[in-house]
Amino acid sequence: MTTLSTSRAPNDKPGRPGRARKTATREQFLDAAVALFSRQGVAATTLAHIAREVGVTSAMVHYHFANREQLLDAVCNEKLVPFVHALHAPLHTENMDDPVAILQAMADCLLEHVVRLPWLAPMWLSDVGSTSGELCQRVMPHVPAEQVNQLTAAIAAAQARGTINPNLQPHLIFMSMVGLVLLPFASLDDCRSLHPDADFSPEALRRHVVAAVDNLLRPL
Amino acid sequence: MTTLSTSRAPNDKPGRPGRARKTATREQFLDAAVALFSRQGVAATTLAHIAREVGVTSAMVHYHFANREQLLDAVCNEKLVPFVHALHAPLHTENMDDPVAILQAMADCLLEHVVRLPWLAPMWLSDVGSTSGELCQRVMPHVPAEQVNQLTAAIAAAQARGTINPNLQPHLIFMSMVGLVLLPFASLDDCRSLHPDADFSPEALRRHVVAAVDNLLRPL
Amino acid sequence: MTTLSTSRAPNDKPGRPGRARKTATREQFLDAAVALFSRQGVAATTLAHIAREVGVTSAMVHYHFANREQLLDAVCNEKLVPFVHALHAPLHTENMDDPVAILQAMADCLLEHVVRLPWLAPMWLSDVGSTSGELCQRVMPHVPAEQVNQLTAAIAAAQARGTINPNLQPHLIFMSMVGLVLLPFASLDDCRSLHPDADFSPEALRRHVVAAVDNLLRPL
Amino acid sequence: MTTLSTSRAPNDKPGRPGRARKTATREQFLDAAVALFSRQGVAATTLAHIAREVGVTSAMVHYHFANREQLLDAVCNEKLVPFVHALHAPLHTENMDDPVAILQAMADCLLEHVVRLPWLAPMWLSDVGSTSGELCQRVMPHVPAEQVNQLTAAIAAAQARGTINPNLQPHLIFMSMVGLVLLPFASLDDCRSLHPDADFSPEALRRHVVAAVDNLLRPL
DNA sequence: TATGAATGAGTCTTCATTCAT
DNA sequence: CATGAATGAAGACTCATTCAT
Fold it and tell me: What is the spatial distance between Cα C50 and Cα C65, in angstroms, rounded to a whole number?
C-alpha cells in the first residue's frame, strides 16, 4: 500500500468540538469505495480514504463493515455481482444456436453498465490486470462456468458453420470483446489528453464500441 | 503475500562462515519489480517485496534507487519506454497512406513484446486502469502525440476511402486494438481456470489476436 | 480475521487483565517534549522518545500532532510564544525614556520564566546555538522587531546621556543580558559537578543574575 | 537524529565510474565536522554529511575514525581540548591574588578563540545546553577542577576586599562571563536579521564583549 | 449508534557500520 | 589505501483494527 499522494487523508484529527454527527449509509460507503477504487486502484485505497470521501471517521467504516475484507466482500456482492449476473444472463437460454446474438447481447449489457457506472471500466481493468486482484478473486466464483463453456462450444460450431471468423480462438473471444468494450472507457482520460478536441461523449463511445464488436465477430 | 521461496541457499561456497552477503544488480531489481507489479499491481508492491524477491534487504533497494519514485522512474525508463518507442516506431514514416499497415505493424510489435515480456500485459492494464497510474503518468510523456494525431487523420481518410470500417471512431481505434491484444494475455489465468483444457499457448494466442485485429480493421 | 467480533468480550469487567490502554493529553506530550528537548536537544529527540516518556506508542504522537513539524509548531506556539510575548511585553509602552528599566523588566521576566520552567534555559541555548535551530526559526517571527529597534535607539540615547555604559554595543546588549541570565541555569549541572557544595538554589541563582544584570548596565 | 532538510546528502550513490579518488586528510574531516556541528548541531550531523562536505564517501569517515564515537573523541581532543587548556592556562599561576586579572585573561583568551574559530561559539552553546551534550561530556574531564576551585575562593576573597561586586555568586561568575562572551557570537545571525544595518564586525563584537566583561566584574 | 483515542504491524527512508575487493 | 555494496536497527509516518465511552 503506497502513500498515493493524491489525497493525504489529512487529519482524521481529534478535537473539532462542535462537529455535527455525520451519518452515512452503507450505500454511501460502497459508492465512495468504487469511486476511489476506480480512481486510485483497490490496493491504493485505504479505509481512511473512503471514510474521508464520505465525511466520517475511519472508525465508522469499521462500524459498518467490521474490516477491510468484508468491505471488499460487500463491494463485490452489492456492486459487482449484480453486474456479473446481468452480463451472463443471455447465457441462460435453452438454445445456444446463435452465439453471435448472445455475444452481442452480452456486449450490449456490458456497454450499458459501463456507460451508466463510470467506475466500472477502470476498476475492472485495473483489478483484472493483477492476476490476484482483490476483487477479481471474489467475483470469479460468480461466473457461471458451465454456461460459459456451452457458449464456447456454440462459438466453435458457429465458426464451423462460417458464421464467425474461424481464426479466432473460441475461448478467447469473450475476453477480447470485453477488452474492446472496456478499454476505451478505461483510457478515456489518456485519450482526451491526446486528442483534446475529439468527441468522447457516451454516445460516440457507444457507437464505436458497437461497431468494433460487430466487426470482431464478423465472419471472413 | 507469498513467502518468496527464492531458496535462501544458506551459505554458499564451502567454508565462508558468516553472512554470505547476497549481491544484486540494478537489472535484477528492475526485473523483480516488473514481475511483482504484474502479479500484484504497482501500488500493492512494496520495496520490501522487491528486495525479498531479489534476496537482499530493503535498504539495498534504496542504495540503488534512492527512493520509490526513482525506482518507478527507472522501471519506466528502462523497461517501458523502450517498448513505447518500439510500439510507435511505425508512426515515424513519411507517408501515412496506409494506416491499416501501420496499425498492423503496431499490433505486431505489441504482440511481440507482450509474448516476450509476460509482465507487460497485466502491468499495463492494471496501471492504465487507474486514471492516475503511477507508471502511466511517467510513460505518457513519451507517447509521440504529434504522430498519433497524424495517424488518426490518416485513419479518417482511410475510412472515407472505404478501407476501414467507417463506424469506428478514429481516435479510439488504437486503444481498442490495444485492448484486443492485451486483454487475452492479462486474463490468461482466469481463462485457464475457466477452460482448463483449451490451448493457450503463445502461438494460439498470437493467432487469435492477429485474427481479431484483422477483423477489427476490416472495412464493411 | 474470520469470526465477527460480536462474540468477543470473554473477560472484560472484573480483573481487566489486558492492555490497560494508557491515555495521554496533548498537554502531556508538549511537556514531555520540552523536557526531552532540554535534556537531549531538539534534534536528538525522536517522536518515539516523547511517546515513551508519556507512556504510549509513537503512533499516538502522530495521532495528536500529525507529524514532527506540527509537533514543533505546537511546542513553539503553546510553550515558547507565550514566553516570548511576556518577555517583550515591557517594550509595549509609550515612552522608552528609561531603557534601563525596560531591560531590567525584561531580565526579571526572563528570570521568572527560567526559574519556573526548568526546561527553558537549556532548550533555548541549545537551539539558539544552531543557527538553524528548529525552534528558533519558528520563534523568531514572533519577536517584535519594530519595538526591539526602538529599544536599541533608546539605549543609544541613554548611552549618550551617560545612563548606560557607552562602550557596549546597543544592538548586542539584549543578547548579552540573555546570556547572563540563561547560562547559569543552562550549565547548572556542570557547575554542580564542579562545585558540589556551593549553593545553587533558585534564590541564589536569582540573586546572582540580578546583580550581574545590574552590573552589566551600570554606566561607567 | 532528524532529517535536517538542509542537505539531503543525496546519493553517495554507486556507479560514477571515472571518479578521481578523492583523498582527504584527518584534519579536513575534523574541520568539516566542527563546521557542520556549529551549523546544525552535533546530534543532527551524520557521518554522511561530513563525508559529503569533504567530498568522499562515508566509508572513508569510518576508515579514518572507526566509528562515530571516535570521531567525536577526535573532535574533542584535537579541536576542543587545546582551547580548553588555553582557556584555563591563566589559572596555572602561583598567586591568585588578582582574580579580576585572571578572569580578564580568560575572557581575552575565550574572545580570541571565538573570533578566530567561528564554529566555536555556536557549537559550545548548543552542546552545553543539552546537559548530556555529546561533546560536553568529553570536554568536562579536561577542566582543571582544582584550579577552578581556587579561583572561586580567590573571587570570594576579592569580593570581601571590595574588588568584585559582592552580590555575584563566586561559583557562577565564570559561567556568566562565558555567556557574556559567547552569546553575541552564537546569535549573530539572529541579530543581523533583526538589525540589518548595525555593525557586527569582529572588532565591534570584541569591543562590546570587553566592555561587558569589564562591567560585570566591576565592584559596586 | 458513533467516535475519539489507542495500538501493533508495516512502509519508506536514513544511519552507522562492515567487509570483500 | 579506498570504496562500492551490503546490512540491521532505528526514525517518521500510515494503516487496519480495537475498544471504552
Answer: 12
Of A132, A169, A199, the CB nearest to B204: A169
Q: What does the pLDDT read at residue C20?
A: 65
Indicate the class that CATH gives domain B79-217: mainly alpha
C-beta atoms surrounding C126 within 10 Å: 32
Residue D101 confidence class, pLDDT cut points 50, 70, 90: very high
CB pairs under 8 A between A and B: 219
- Alpha carbon distances (Å) from D208 to A65, C164, D74, D190: 71, 13, 33, 17
**C 11-30 residues, CB < 7 A, strand E:** 19, 21-24
Q: Which of D51, D147, D162, D161 is nearest to D102 (CA)?
A: D147
- Residue matched to cell numbers 569510518: D62
Output the nine-digit C-alpha cell for D16: 560514477
**CA C136 to chain CA centroid, nearest Å:** 10
Q: How far apart are CA B48 and CA B58, in angstroms?
A: 5
**pTM of the full structure:** 0.87
Domain range list for chain D: 79-217
Biggest CA-to-CA distance, chain C? 86
- Mean pLDDT over A91-105 rounds to 92
B63 — phi, psi (to 5°)?
-60, -40
Residues in Cβ contact with B178 at an 8 Å cutoff, skipping those fewer than 6 apart: A183, A187, B110
For residue C77, the distance in angstroms to the closest alpha carbon of chain D comes to: 19
Q: How far apart are CA C131 and CA B153, in angstroms?
A: 62
C16: left (phi over 0), alpha (psi -120 to 50) or beta: left
Element (H, E) at D61: helix D58-65
- Predicted local distance difference test score (pLDDT) of residue D17: 38
- Chain D within 8 Å of B1 (Cβ-Cβ)? no
Mean of pLDDT values over B110-124: 95
Does B21 contact strand E, using a CB cutoff of 7 Å? Answer: yes
What is the CB neighbour count within 10 angstroms for residue D25? 10
Who wins on pLDDT, C3 or D94? D94
Tell me which of A170-174, B60-64, D216-220 is least confident.
D216-220
Whether the CB-CB separation of D206 and D115 falls below 8 Å is answered with yes
What would the mean pLDDT of A15-29 be, rounded to a whole number? 66
